[in-house]
Design a protein that fits this description.
CATH class of the domain at 197-321: Alpha Beta
Number of helices: 14
Mean pLDDT: 90
CATH architecture of the domain at 197-321: 3-Layer(aba) Sandwich
Protein name: Transcriptional regulator, AbiEi antitoxin, Type IV TA system
Order of helices and strands: EHEEHHEHEEEEEHHHHHEEEHEHHHH
Shape: globular
Low-confidence stretches: 2-7
Radius of gyration: 22 Å
Length: about 325
């Protein structure tokens, strides 16, 4: 998953797209390996396509679908990737609503859904895209709770006017009682407080493992005004404050700068937090969250208490939901 950034306009296609009508010798270019088919009638340079991350391949496929279906409203993960909301891996299908259709049908990898209730959408740069509210409600009804929480949290961060009350109200208009129940559980927990999809997913997994619920984004005050730090997760236990940090893999990969310098800064910050009263600071990454037994071991070693039975169905389905993560 890329570093999350919410866009006022749609995210641009990561690679140039070439339509069959614009290239008279396109079949020859495909046979020679210069172009790769993205969608029927839409192609991209093979060298650029091969270098794309899974989520950027998906964004490219959605842009290709927009060329084929310019009047469709993109929804679900397809709208999420256009708006910069979380998308995990590379979803298999592009989802859109055909406003003039009364029946859902598939055309290749594109799912054109019937417009039983036209979704709320906006015209963003010529593309019709479901609102963050619609995206969050669909995720809460249809996706794994950890993924749905990440999408809802990100939608709340992106639009300060949006509330979980708005999400609940829209969800209750859907006919599926099972979907409404699933969505209520998500909206009971959704919040703009988590600062990343990893924090949102971590919060879901921590609860599912049975641990005591943490405070999130807790301020640890410094000796001078403005000299404060925040910890992603914090537990108070027997007079001790336990800190937890959900660190995205990219932070220490060197992609954003010197990885060794980032690690040194982390050690310095951890030491500063402990001087200010945090007993221990423990870190985890996507690999630890997608394999819950690893996060469980980290938190137990930190001294976090298990206070309820684990939610085994949620934990057992987590790996499939997070497939494609870095």
């Amino acid at each position: 998953m890329p570093p999350l950034k919410i866009f006022a306009d749609v995210r641009q296609c990561p690679v140039p797209l070439i339509s069959r009508t614009a290239e008279p010798h396109i079949d020859r270019a495909v046979r020679s390996g210069h172009l790769v088919r993205v969608m029927r009638g839409v192609y991209a340079p093979q060298t650029l396509w091969r270098e794309l991350k899974p989520w950027d391949r998906y964004l490219t496929r959605v842009h290709a679908a927009a060329r084929c279906y310019p009047d469709a409203v993109f929804v679900r993960e397809s709208a999420a990737t256009l708006r910069g909301l979380p998308v995990f891996g590379e979803p298999p299908h592009v989802h859109a609503v055909a406003l003039d259709s009364s029946a859902t049908h598939a055309v290749g990898e594109v799912r054109l859904h019937a417009a039983e209730r036209p979704p709320r959408f906006e015209n963003l740069g010529g593309m019709l895209v479901a609102t963050g509210l619609e995206i969050a409600v669909d995720a809460a009804r249809l996706r794994h709770p950890a993924v749905a929480r990440a999408v809802a949290d990100a939608a709340l961060r992106a639009d300060p006017r949006l509330t979980t009350g708005h999400m609940r109200a829209l969800s209750e208009t859907h006919p599926s009682s099972r979907g409404r129940r699933r969505a209520r559980d998500v909206f009971d927990r959704a919040s703009a407080v988590p600062e990343s999809p990893l924090e949102s997913v971590s919060a879901t997994v921590i609860e599912a493992l049975g641990f005591a619920l943490p405070d999130m984004q807790l301020w640890v005050r410094g000796p001078e005004p403005g000299d404060d730090d925040r910890v992603d997760f914090a537990w108070s236990w027997k007079g001790r404050l336990i800190g937890g940090e959900a660190d995205g893999d990219i932070k220490y990969s060197g992609t954003l700068g010197d990885a060794r310098a980032a690690l040194r800064e982390r050690h310095v910050r951890d030491a500063r937090l402990m001087r200010r009263g945090v007993h221990t600071v423990h870190h985890w990454a996507w690999a630890d969250v997608s394999e819950p037994s690893q996060l469980r071991a980290i938190l137990l070693s930190a001294g976090v208490q298990i206070v309820r039975q684990p939610n085994l169905p949620l934990l057992g389905s987590l790996g499939g939901a997070l497939r494609g993560l870095p």
